[in-house]
């Protein structure tokens, strides 16, 4: 049995969504254990008992040998599930080199390029919210300076690259939903929301986000685990 340890409003939504796609397509059964964030908006300490990083997602597959059953990191878990449970390659790229290359690029682009500036923007936003009133003007200046110098430009470049990739396409690779779409959705939606950007400026991305959200497995994942953002 597969067990997903899922944290609300986190990257683990990706894995929950993929599990629902696999359940809908193949009848794959799994157990879901959900956790709420603590008072500091962090993952609860219970996750440390499952994996030493104490973060979600964590996947436990008891079909694996003892000592090798616990998997962490969303990209690894997505690749694992597709390799061993996507029997007809419904959510995997074709064997063509271009498809494999694009799939791998967008799978890793999500966390390697797009998420770091988005996370930093979120940290700075929280710093302003949590700072004492007398320090807020200074923290706001630091936030504005960092965003102008380092963050906003990288978010824009990332979204513009995604916008170009989706020109005339419904999905990133092979004209079908793949693990790359599932991995990138959270990062792209987060970039739009946290960056307070208008989807009107990214029509191809807006269409793609809607394609993701209209899938029945996506809706089921929201029902079971809450909205991703």
From TrEMBL:
Gene3D superfamilies: 1.20.1050.10, Glutaredoxin
Protein name: Glutathione S-transferase
SUPFAM superfamilies linked to this entry: GST C-terminal domain-like (SSF47616), Thioredoxin-like (SSF52833)
Molecular function per GO: transferase activity
CDD domains xrefs: GST_C_GTT1_like, GST_N_GTT1_like
Sequence similarity: Belongs to the GST superfamily.
Species the sequence originates in: Mannheimia bovis
Superkingdom, natural source: Bacteria
Residues annotated as domain GST N-terminal: 1-89
């Amino acid at each position: 049995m597969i067990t997903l340890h899922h944290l609300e409003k986190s990257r683990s939504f990706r894995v929950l969504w993929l599990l629902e796609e696999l359940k809908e397509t193949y009848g794959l059964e799994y157990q879901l254990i959900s956790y709420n964030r603590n008072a500091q908006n962090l993952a609860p300490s219970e996750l440390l008992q499952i994996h030493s990083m104490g973060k979600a997602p964590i996947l436990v597959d008891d079909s694996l040998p003892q000592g090798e059953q616990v998997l962490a990191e969303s990209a690894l878990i997505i690749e694992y599930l597709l390799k061993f449970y996507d029997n007809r390659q419904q959510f995997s790229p074709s064997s063509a080199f271009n498809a494999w290359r694009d799939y791998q690029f967008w799978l890793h682009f999500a966390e390697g390029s797009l998420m770091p500036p988005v996370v930093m923007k979120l940290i700075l936003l929280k710093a302003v919210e949590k700072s004492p009133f007398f320090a807020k003007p200074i923290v706001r200046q630091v936030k504005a300076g960092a965003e102008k110098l380092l963050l906003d430009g990288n978010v824009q470049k990332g979204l513009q690259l995604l916008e170009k990739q989706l020109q005339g396409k419904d999905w990133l690779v092979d004209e079908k939903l793949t693990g790359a779409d599932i991995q990138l959705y959270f990062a792209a939606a987060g970039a739009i929301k946290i960056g307070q950007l208008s989807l009107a400026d990214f029509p191809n991305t807006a269409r793609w986000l809607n394609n993701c959200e209209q899938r029945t497995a996506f809706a089921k994942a929201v029902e079971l685990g809450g909205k991703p953002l």
